[in-house]
Amino acid sequence: MLLPLLSEWDPAEGGEGSIDPLGLYNIADVLATKLIPGVRERQQHPRFLTAIAASLAVCNRNQFPEGSIANDGISEPWMVFEWHVVEGLVRSITERERLRGLPGREKVATAIFKERLRLSSKRYLKSPKVFGFHGVYRQLAKTLHIDENGMLGNNGFELLDVWRREQNLQGFYETAQGEGASWFRRLTDAVNEGLKNGMVSRTGSWEGWQFIANHFCHDAIGDEEARVLNKLLLADREGYRNRVIEFLASAKGQDIASKLYARLGNEKIWSERPFHQALITRTEGDMKSLLDAIMAYEAFSRLLQDTFDDCLFALTPENGNSIVKRSIPALVERPQIRHAAETVTDVYNEAVDKLAVLNDVHVNKLIDNFRLVSERNTPERWVQGLIDHHHRIQQNKPPDGKLAWIVHCDDDSYIISLDTYGRKVGGRWDDSYVHTYRMASLQSFLRDLRLAS
Asked: Over 80: is that where the pLDDT of 8 sits?
């Protein structure tokens, strides 16, 4: 799990073993999307939506027909625009904390300052369609109808219009007059030359870098721009984004948030259960059923995750030892694991019942994948089944499977496959969530929109 706002933005490339060793994440992701459509855990700054609106304007199909590709054979106009925005922010903003939440900032800084190279697809993020700011925020832009099939939607026009008026950039898009028109042409030219060269063609002295920092920095939203972004976020056509935001922005919601962040700072534990417990008392109907399902599923997830973490802890080398071998009986010595084996069926059945109320065929199919590992059994057989389940999950990960974290040896003992999978502590054995449900992203949004401290 990524702790909210703790880790650096640039994601590490997936290791040999990958993440989510028990396959628990997919259901949590579906539930979070049902609750707060469009918002992803990596989102921190709503002003990237404004940058996307500007990107849709600059890279419009009149300027760059559909199918336009750079001479590198892969980069589309929006990606070249993204290179320029990120480089402009990195070049012009010296306070590094202000760049927190900017995708690709470290790699861009390395390319342009240390290696003295022009930014290109090879020197940017390896998966920009996923981890660049377009990749992270595009689904939200579509959900809010800023992006309509790759073109500016009505909400995109409204956002762009408010931005250019507040920024004194009249003429930016759809007109040939005004200060904004001049900069629109310069940005269009920069994208066009970037496509031709397969890299950023502007030098470090280009005045456009400072223009980008002045007008696109994600922590400098204008008052009217903030109002429009907040209005769009609250205009929830599906899901419950508006209700969650309104409660989070309330005095009660902010009090809970402050306590959750205090726990995060003190214990490095992030769990939205207290927030959902308070929110559910103010809801009814389908939203209440969804929150019930989330809490039941997290109880089941916590039970499996803690057992797995206890196994990793027991197999972690100490005092310079290169390997620790344990048998199944040695892995189930902790009383919590024995209790988990006794209660897992009941916890699983409750999660199944709560999820079934949502009437989501995909979720029901996913939770059924845990049926075998949730059957009542002896602690030894149950832990053996959990490890076998982990092996199946790893084998089925694309594209060609991933390495198991726990390996079965010929003498019927177990070891961890890599030191990086070791644990300094075992499971938490509390009621904290295993997964995150977008509250941290919304809190960051509220801060940027000046609706929360």
From this structure: no
